[in-house]
Write a structure and sequence with these properties.
It is a single chain. By secondary structure, this protein is an alpha/beta fold. It folds into two domains: 1-79 and 155-219, P-loop containing nucleotide triphosphate hydrolases (Rossmann fold, 3-Layer(aba) Sandwich), CATH 3.40.50; 90-154, no CATH class. It has helices at residues 44-51, 72-77, 95-105, 110-123, 139-152, 169-184, 196-200; strands at 5-13, 19-28, 33-38, 59-64, 67-68, 80-83, 157-161, 188-192, 204-209, 212-213. A six-stranded mixed beta sheet has the order 6-7-8-3-9-10, with helices on both faces. Helix 6 links the parallel strand 7 and strand 8 (188-192). Helix 3 (95-105) crosses helix 4 (110-123), helix 3 (95-105) runs parallel beside helix 5 (139-152) and helix 4 (110-123) crosses helix 5 (139-152). The radius of gyration is 17 Å and the shape is globular. It binds adenosine-5'-triphosphate. Adenosine-5'-triphosphate is lined by residues 14, 17, 20, 38, 40-46. It comes from Catellatospora methionotrophica. One of its GO terms (molecular function) is transmembrane transporter activity. Residues 5-219 form the ABC transporter domain. Keywords: ATP-binding, Nucleotide-binding.
Length: 219
């Protein structure tokens, strides 16, 4: 299954504050990885939250397969997976439990959920940390657990918010390879990053400067 997720001339603001994103048009395309780059505060997370259905534009719209995306509940139902910037894991559950809970609440049967959890932790190199509490994992291990959870859900859209920021070079490369595998199975992947090398490994780049798009060109 593929999905076409489009931000169509969106402007985003928090409360009555000035806009933090202005007139942005960008598509998450099946089979491709879009890098969203820009300095701290440029609006990368805000764009991802709009695509995830967590925030509504004040102008323009986010559409999914041509129809307006209503909210996060609809986005979850339609398989728009978000790996949030600060991992979003439950610290007092184990790495495996965090993934299992997500899978079971997405409707996966318990036996399949256990198998998918083990596979996902293996892919990020955390097979031996499966039964460890998240609060006892290092920052990079927590980040990889959040990535494993996002991978295990196998959605048609994967939104990954700075998911390599705490990783060493080898794990960063592993994660980029895993994001590529997601695109190769047909997912639309959007990846925010400060790392020019990581961005260069993606198919397309949207560069934000103070909420404005500057480089929408495909490579
Ligand atoms: N909840 C909020 N309330 C008010 N302003 C916010 C909120 N979240 C973000 N902002 C503002 O929106 C702008 C864009 O923030 P955003 O987090 O999208 O940037 P970013 O590019 O992801 O930054 P970073 O690389 O540091 O994560 C910033 O000026 C920030 O202060």
């Amino acid at each position: 299954m593929t999905r076409m997720l489009l931000a169509d001339r969106i402007t985003m603001a928090y409360g009555k504050d000035r806009a933090v994103l202005r007139d942005i048009t960008v598509a998450a395309q099946p089979g491709r990885i879009l890098a969203v780059t820009g300095a701290s505060g440029a609006g990368k997370t805000t764009l991802l939250w709009a695509l995830a259905g967590l925030l509504s534009p004040v102008e323009g719209q986010v559409t999914l397969d041509g129809a307006p995306l209503r909210d996060r509940d609809q986005a979850v139902t339609q398989g728009i997976i978000l790996i949030p910037q600060h991992n979003g894991l439950a610290p007092t559950l184990t790495a495996a439990e965090n993934i299992l809970v997500a899978l079971v609440s997405a409707g996966v049967r318990a036996g399949d959920a256990r198998r998918l959890t083990a596979e996902a932790l293996e892919r990020v190199g955390l097979a031996n940390q499966a039964e460890q509490l998240v609060e006892e994992l290092s920052g990079g291990q927590q980040q990889r657990t959040a990535i494993a959870r996002g991978l295990a859900l196998r959605g048609p859209v994967l939104l990954a918010d700075e998911v390599t920021s705490e990783l060493d070079a080898a794990n960063r490369q592993t994660v980029l390879t895993l994001l590529r595998a997601e695109a190769d199975r047909g997912a639309a992947v959007v990846f925010t990053t400060h790392d020019p090398q990581a961005a260069a490994a993606c198919d397309d780049e949207l560069h934000l400067i103070d909420g404005h798009a500057t480089t929408p060109a495909p490579r």
